[in-house]
Amino acid sequence: MQRIEHIYIDGEFVTPHGEEWFDLYNPSTEEVIGQVRLGDSHDAQRAIAAARAALPAWSRTTREERLAALRRMHQAIAAREDDLMEAIVKEYGAPAVRGRWMASFPAEVIAQAIETLESFEFEEQVGIARVVLTPVGVAGLITPWNSNAGFICNKLSAALAAGCTAVIKPSEMSALQTQIVIEALHKAGLPKGVFNIVNGRGDVVGEEIARHPDVAKISFTGSSAVGQHLVTTGAATMKRVTLELGGKSPTLVLDDADFASIMPLVLNAGFMNSGQACIAGTRILVPRGRLAEFEQVAKEAITQFKSGDPRDPETAIGPMVSAKQWERVQNYIRIGIDEGATVLAGGEGRPDGLQAGWFVKPTIFTNATNQMRIAREEIFGPVLTVIAYEDEADAIAIANDTRYGLNAMVLGQDVERCERVARQIDSGRVLINTLAHEPRAPFGGFKHSGLGREMGKWGMSAYLEPKTLLRA
Ligand code: NAD
Questions:
Q1: Residue 89, pLDDT score
Q2: What are the catalytic residues (predicted)?
């Protein structure tokens, strides 16, 4: 049983002023595997003061000095990949392939920030003016549990590259990962106060960051409800806000698609990260004339998606992160049944043979409409909804008839047509016949899926303010 009793402020591991101990669980066994001592608003204030004190010197560092620091961070985080992998499997339950990706992603995003910083244009001549991009100030970075180490490293490396200092409020449910990240970053030997990490509850430490006048910017990944709340709270101190929120992403299967060959893409898009992915393709739009054929292929293919022990290499879908999340997913399965949709595969309860662990049966609903709650609300579990459409225009209309707009996928044999359709979908990203990822490209959402973008030069720009200089 691991006890995590320190937070990280001003270059040191310190005992929090907060005295609450929070249980950490292994979602595969439902056992308590550790405890983390949570910071409180007093700790958040200390961390903000440290970041503020470090800001003048860090914001004036040269590109080379920042690059050197980021390279040390990269090296230190990369060296802990195996430890991160173990923590991710233990406290989050990610299956092996996904876990490995999540364990290597933190170092990869730092490498991306290095690449962006190497060529970033901080100054530009515009007519008679010199436009200088300057760091916005202290950044408050708030992360969720579904890829905690990756989000910390992504947000922090972009903020530091831009010349900001940071206070991080990681997910309180991911403290094992956070501890490894803190140890690695401490080893990287950055100047004191440049980054500070406070474990704590969202409505205590997160709230203090959102409220505090010395925090100039918030970058948040999490639910749309908390994101909206942060915009409202941040407005009082005119905070800049970047939000990466939820999704209800459409997978648009065109009528010329070869179902057997696209089905792995459809199901992997839907079940990625055990369904706990903001970009998961959870609404599958299928031509009505070929619905029966699609259902048959999907029913057969889903048998390959085993839900169970994340350490078993055959497992594709791990447990839900918490009892609360398991209940939420079960509740949505009941809602789908009550709304009159048909369960094509899966359904309520644990997969056969599993007595413990927050495991869910990979589930597909069919005979659903886009008005049902299972088509409109983010479930955040391995539950997909098939919706029939009449023609291409209807498919595009259904794809766009959602409050979200984070990700979408278009599948079909005629690539030109796929692209024409993709251009009409209101979404931050549209994938055509692929699940590829381009880390240099902007990532973020339309509508309720967020505000602003992360990754690449767009991500870094979100930590900078343009200043116009004119001289006689
Ligand atoms: P959440 O919004 O409940 O929590 C996210 C973080 O915000 C946590 O660290 C939490 O402690 C903190 N928080 C909670 N209340 C707060 C408050 N009042 N003030 C400040 N901080 C507060 O979300 P979650 O349950 O941790 O994660 C799941 C959600 O995150 C899903 O809706 C998912 O779609 C979304 N998500 C989005 C992306 C993306 O990139 N768009 C990525 C991952 C997750």
A1: 97
A2: 244
| 3-state SS, one letter per residue, for 108-157 | HHHHHHHHHHHHCCCEEEECCEEEEEEECCEEEEECCHHHHHHHHHHHHH
* Residue 245, ligand 1, Cβ within 6 A: yes
Task: Supply the residue whose CA is at minimum distance from atom 37 of ligand 1.
Answer: 245
Nearest ligand 1 atom to alpha carbon 209:
20
pLDDT digits (tens, 9 = 90+) for 418-431: 999 999 999 999 99
Asked if 80 and 183 touch (Cβ cutoff 8 Å), the reply is yes
Please indicate whether residue 454, judged by its CB atom, sits closer than 6 Å to ligand 1: no
Nearest CA to ligand 1 atom 22: 202
How many whole angstroms separate alpha carbon 63 and alpha carbon 74? 16
- What are the Cα distances from residue 120, in Å, to 439, 455, 459? 15, 13, 11
Å from CA of 175 to ligand 1 middle = 15
Ligand 1 centre to CA of 221 (Å) is: 5
The CB of 228 under 6 Å from ligand 1? The reply is no
Which residue minimizes the CA distance to atom 26 of ligand 1? 144
Cα–Cα distances in angstroms (integers) from residue 354 to residues 50, 288, 306, 307, 345, in the given order: 48, 36, 12, 10, 17
Catalytic residues: 244
Place of tokens 């992403």: 249
Per residue in 72-90, pLDDT tens? 999 999 999 999 999 999 9
For residue 174, the CA-to-ligand 1 centroid distance in Å is: 12
Ligand 1 centre distance from Cα of residue 230 (Å):
11
The atom of ligand 1 lying closest to the CA of 247 is 34
pLDDT at 149 over 90: yes
Delineate the domains of the chain, giving CATH numbers in brackets: 2-245+447-469 (3.40.605.10), 250-432 (3.40.309.10)
Q: What is the enclosing helix (H) or strand (E) of 408?
A: strand 408-411
- Between the CA atoms of 234, 445, 165 and 196, what dihedral angle is there, to the nearest 10 degrees? 80
